[in-house]
Automatic annotation (TrEMBL):
Maturation and modification: Transiently phosphorylated on a His residue during the reaction cycle. Phosphorylation strongly increases the affinity for substrates and increases the rate of nicotinate D-ribonucleotide production. Dephosphorylation regenerates the low-affinity form of the enzyme, leading to product release.
Record NCBIfam families: NAPRTase_put (TIGR01513), PRK09243.1-2 (NF006695), PRK12484.1 (NF009131)
Keywords from the UniProt entry: Glycosyltransferase, Ligase, Phosphoprotein, Pyridine nucleotide biosynthesis, Transferase
Family label: Belongs to the NAPRTase family.
PANTHER family, per database record: NICOTINATE PHOSPHORIBOSYLTRANSFERASE
Domain Nicotinate phosphoribosyltransferase C-terminal: 342-449
Pathway entry: Cofactor biosynthesis; NAD(+) biosynthesis; nicotinate D-ribonucleotide from nicotinate: step 1/1
E.C. number: 6.3.4.21
Gene Ontology MF terms in the entry: nicotinamide phosphoribosyltransferase activity; nicotinate phosphoribosyltransferase activity
Protein name: Nicotinate phosphoribosyltransferase
Length: 458
């Protein structure tokens, strides 16, 4: 396509929007993530001699296009919602404008990054919401779909609220606390469980979190852990606690808490793992399981209950001979009809407050400044009755991205930003089951443009 565009429409510029239509796990919103990696990849985008040789070998491209790639220089402008922002269906989370040949080439790269990291950040937000303030450790590296998914998935998990990761590469690369405990193989490698615990405590006297379910949690694991904790205290150290990775977690944690408290170890933490997700966590906490920390692996790093964020990359406008021409994609399914033209998205707040009540997608040249605004529900399946909203403060969601500068914000800065933006949304939109619908409108002008293009094409 890029080769063809260079031949047929070499002077055209285009605007493409990246957005999604559906939220994973029947949630209300998606946490935007991956912008930092997109910027890093675009900053170093080039084609070296081996790439050029390969393209020539394919015999698919003309010589002018090969030369274009050999001398490639990115000439695109990007706006995007900041990482950590909760966004809703059909709202552009990124817009790319530039030469048609270039913006088309970026499609797969940008979608791959934004779809993956936004998916994992969204799943992590759900899991951390269920954990109700208890630390969640990301434990998923061995179940991720490859090393990059493990590493950048860990980054996205922190954006979504996790506190640490067992992925040491991600911990190093993104300055995330590294966390983990012994595995069952440590216990099995020694002649007995008590010796295994004692040897661990010798090496890590101030970081003794003992895995107690290798043989029997209540008959051997907890009693042996208590013996080692007593030895640690006698030598001036404080035990961290225990981890349970199998069995009836609710029942076992209650019994373990009783045994630890009776032995005088009220401060010892109980960490649980073993195929947990937001639904299991909710059930455990509803039955008042005394859990202090969660280690979440495969169901977080793969978002296994809803493993795809179907973000799309759609043309919104063409600039030809100095004229902006809005473009639309039409489908027999109303959900797939796109919003045409260059646009801006605004979050609307009650005047003088930090409480949002709706978003509006408008044309880029519209003034959204608190005056009465005629809008239409952006849900393609809704009844298209215009309504007027007034008395609001409007804040634009997308910001200009400077590709010449680093965007290396700390991942915990992004997490704090995300929590602040989540606090602006109504509580009802954040619950995990049957969240209330947050209203996303399109301006009457945008709706009229969409309908005019539909009438033109049908």
């Amino acid at each position: 396509m890029a080769n063809g565009f260079l031949q047929q429409l070499p002077k055209d510029r285009a605007t493409f929007d990246i957005f999604f239509r559906r939220v994973p796990d029947e949630g209300s919103f998606v946490i935007a993530a991956g912008l930092q990696q997109v910027v890093g990849e675009l900053q170093k985008l080039h084609f070296d001699a081996s790439d050029i040789a390969y393209f020539k070998q394919l015999k698919l491209y003309d010589e002018a296009f090969i030369d274009y790639l050999a001398n490639f220089k990115l000439d695109c402008e990007i706006t995007a919602v900041p990482e950590g922002t909760p966004i809703f269906p059909r709202e552009p989370l990124m817009t790319i404008e530039g030469p048609l040949v270039q913006v088309q080439m970026l499609e797969t790269l940008v979608l791959n990054i934004l779809n993956h990291q936004s998916l994992i950040a969204t799943k992590a937000r759900r899991i951390n919401y269920a954990a109700a303030g208890r630390p969640v450790m990301e434990f998923g590296a061995r179940r991720a779909q490859g090393p990059d998914s493990a590493t950048y998935g860990a980054r996205a998990a922190i954006i979504g609220g996790c506190s640490s990761t067992s992925n040491v590469l991600a911990a190093k690369q993104f300055q995330i606390p590294a966390a983990g405990t012994m595995a069952h193989s440590w216990v099995e490698a020694f002649d007995d469980e008590l010796t295994a615990f004692q040897k661990w405590a010798e090496i890590y006297p101030d970081n003794s979190a003992l895995l107690v379910d290798t043989y029997d949690v209540l008959k051997s694991g907890i009693p042996n852990a208590i013996k080692v904790f007593q030895q640690l205290v006698a030598t001036g150290h404080q035990p961290v606690g225990i981890r349970i990775d199998s069995g009836d977690i609710g029942y076992l944690t209650k019994k373990a808490r009783q045994m630890l408290d009776q032995a005088g170890f009220m401060q010892a933490k109980i960490t649980v793992s073993n195929a947990l997700d937001e639904n299991v966590i909710t059930a455990l906490l509803q039955e008042q399981a005394p859990i202090d920390n969660f280690g979440i692996g495969e169901k977080l790093i793969t978002s296994s209950s809803s493993p795809v964020l179907s973000g799309v990359y759609k043309m919104a406008a063409i600039e030809r001979d100095g004229r902006i021409i809005p473009k639309i994609k039409i489908s027999g399914s109303r959900e797939k009809i796109t919003l045409p033209g260059r646009k801006r998205t605004y979050r609307l707040f009650y005047p003088g407050t930090d409480k949002a009540f709706a978003d509006v997608i408008a044309l880029a040249d519209e003034r959204i400044d608190g005056r009465p605004l005629e809008v239409i529900n952006s849900d393609p399946l809704s009844v298209k009755n215009p309504t007027v909203i007034q008395d609001f403060d409007a804040r634009e969601l997308q910001q200009t991205v400077n590709l010449a500068q680093s965007t290396d914000k700390s991942v915990f800065e992004i997490q704090r930003f995300s929590k602040g933006r989540l606090a602006q949304l109504p509580d009802e939109t954040q619950r995990l089951t049957n969240p209330d619908r947050y209203m996303v409108f399109m301006s009457k002008s945008l709706a009229d443009l969409q309908q005019a293009l539909l009438d033109q094409r049908l």
